Amino acid sequence: MLIIARKTQDEKKKEDGFMEVLMDKRTCPIGIFDSGVGGISVLRQLIALMPNEDYLFFGDSKNAPYGTKSFEEVQRLACADAEYLLSKKVKALVVACNTATSAAIQILRNKYSGMPVIGIEPALKPAVLSASGKKPAVLVMATPMTLREEKFHQLMMRYEQDATIIPLPCPGLMEFVERGELSGAALEAYLGKLFQAHLRNPVDCVVLGCTHYPFVRDTIQKMLGDKVAIFDGGGGTARETHRRLAECGLLSPFRARGRVTIENSSESPEITDLCSMLLKI
Ligand code: DGL
């Protein structure tokens, strides 16, 4: 039996109103935040995948680093960063910081349950899957907080049958990126100390579990050798953001290149140049 139901005038008005709101939302920017400039490594992946979206990136360099602060302090800072972006009417929230994700992703998801909230975690899965045949040794570089928290322990438990996972806390490494020091003798000396044991017992893969570290990837590769495969979570986070936006009908309807706005809490006069340089790498 075929039933043709005609929409009442009221139902139609309601639908039109809903479409308008949806239309407006689709044209809003995607909000991204990090403890500093590191999250620009995720922003680059988002732009590469969805160049037609508008982006508003907020880096909290004034309060960086987050990774050596207390859990409660990082929760408080992450909530303030998110609130700021929400005040700018973003349509989705990307937490481009592994540390803030471990401390605050659940709070943010509960608080903003009506919008996509995407976090980032160390890319252990692709690293483990990349090994053909043998059980790989995977070095996970991240902040002390990321490696200490429950979220990482659960992730590690998921893959510990298939890989030897070696967590390596790197306090002080994000500061090199915040200073724009992406290569050179001081960075090599710092990494040399960090890698001492692993230069003797080489690992198969390295996971960059902090969004600042992709900016010093070349130096890490140089020190550990070409045979070591390096992974980071930026691409996966960008793909997950695309998936969530599509699922919620929030992808931008525009075809032209979107606008990228970068804001930072630091009062340093060099911060703007540093952000543009990192965005172009
Ligand atoms: N970029 C942050 C992350 O991904 C950490 C840097 C910090 O310690 O603030 O974990």
How would you explain this protein's 3D organization?
By secondary structure, the protein is of the alpha/beta class. It has helices spanning 9-26, 40-49, 71-87, 98-111, 124-130, 144-148, 150-159, 173-178, 185-200, 217-224, 234-247, 271-280; strands at residues 30-34, 55-59, 92-95, 117-118, 137-142, 164-169, 205-208, 229-232, 260-264. A five-stranded parallel sheet has the order 4-3-1-2-9, with helices on both faces. Strand 1 (30-34), helix 2 and strand 2 form a beta-alpha-beta unit. Helix 2 crosses helix 11 (234-247). It starts with 8 loop residues before the first helix and ends with a helix. The model is unreliable at 1-7 (pLDDT under 50). The structure holds D-glutamic acid (DGL). D-glutamic acid binds at residues 34-36, 38, 64-67, 97-99, 143, 146, 174, 210-212.
List the topology elements.
Elements: H1 9-26, E1 30-34, H2 40-49, E2 55-59, H3 71-87, E3 92-95, H4 98-111, E4 117-118, H5 124-130, E5 137-142, H6 144-148, H7 150-159, E6 164-169, H8 173-178, H9 185-200, E7 205-208, H10 217-224, E8 229-232, H11 234-247, E9 260-264, H12 271-280
Parallel strand pairs: 1-2, 1-3, 2-9, 3-4, 5-6, 5-7, 7-8
Helix pairs in contact: 2-11, 2-12, 3-4, 9-10
The structure holds D-glutamic acid (DGL).
